[in-house]
Amino acid sequence: xxxxxxxxxxxxxxxxxxxIDRWVDxxxxxxxxFLQALVRVPTDTPPGDNAPHAxxxxxxxxxxxxxxxxxxxxxxxxxxQGMQSIVNLVVPRRYAPGGPVVALNAxxxxxxxxxxxxxxxxxxxxxxxxxxxxxxxxxxxxxxxFTFAVRALEAAGVPLTGGVDLLFxxxxxxGGELGPGWLLAQGxxxxxxxxxxxFSYEVVTAHNGCLQMEVTVHGRMGHAAVPHTAVDALQAATxxxxxxxxxxxxxxxxxxxxxxxxxxxxxxxRIEGGTNTNVVPGKVVLKIDRRMxxxxxxxxxxxRLRGLIEQAAAGQEGIRVEIRRLLLAHAMQPLPGNAxxxxxxxxxxxxxxxxxxxxxxxxxxxxxxxxxxxxxxAVIYGAGPRTVLESNAKRADEHLVxxxxxxATKVVARTLCDLLxx
Length: 422
Known about the structure:
By secondary structure, the chain is α/β, with parallel strands linked by helices. The chain has eleven helices and 17 strands. The protein has helices spanning 8-26, 28-39, 51-62, 75-80, 141-155, 180-185, 233-251, 298-313, 339-353, 368-372, 402-420, and strands at residues 69-72, 87-94, 96-107, 126-127, 130-132, 161-169, 193-196, 203-207, 209-218, 222-223, 265-273, 279-280, 283-292, 320-329, 359-362, 378-380, 399-401. The protein is elongated.
């Protein structure tokens, strides 16, 4: 009888995964406490005073034996972006030569809590296995996921090659250019692969682009008792709004071929104007967000949007329109070299969550695009539920199911072991 050859490599991998899982379980209370401490330091953007959170994070990391390099973005660049302070953190971990360097990037800045909370948005309170707080799901959770995944990897006792760069940055809400974009431009991190903070346990390899614009409609202010002496900027702005919403009907007809992404969309997220009830408004400002599917050309999208606005405002005497681009975030599409990341993440997530997990796209835009734009294969994965809506991310009572955090930490640590196991 012939005995089948024994797969020593597979045995080694299984033993490493078992040691990783056991380490995460043994240190999970410590991981939860780490996340609670991060949630309790506000990072509302605006106003965007994020340096205190970075310094607190660095202090906590030192307790684990991780030395964080703190890189302060020049104040004039930060103020120009509409924020107060940014200190980005880089924690380099290096092993034997020969393997890739994998960046793990999570962002600490987040939108303000808003109204409707039933829990303290900065309390980190745990109720029924859920941790509540602003950024508990997106994406301070992945400060914990990534940190404890690296700790579990290093505790597994297997030979490692290459390295990991933990990147904790603070400019995702305004586009990321002063977060990971700034670190990459300064040469402060040079990874071969990247895992960006997720918002669910789906493995995301593509996302929408985003164009944000500010449209200022100028008229002439006047008293409501003598409206003929004024030029109503709001009335002109309503024509612009009508043209934008009509464009949404056209966009719904052009769907993306990427699973998880539907169609482009225009959202008018903010309107400012007028001075008083009895005054004809002389100026109205619209803040516009245009989501672009990966198949769209951003140059063509911006040109069409500008044309729509200008045409809608044309022919109205005394009306002048200013259009200013606020943000252009390109769509992310899979790069050929992302296969090892995608395969490993999907395999381990499917096993640990007990349900098939496959690569898909998302209508959001993320910092991950800044890596893929530089030719660095990137994947989005982290702690969270099946869909971002389940966690109330960016809404009242944002929360994270702690078992999702536990399993995501194991998935990332196992994936790192696959990529870096010597």
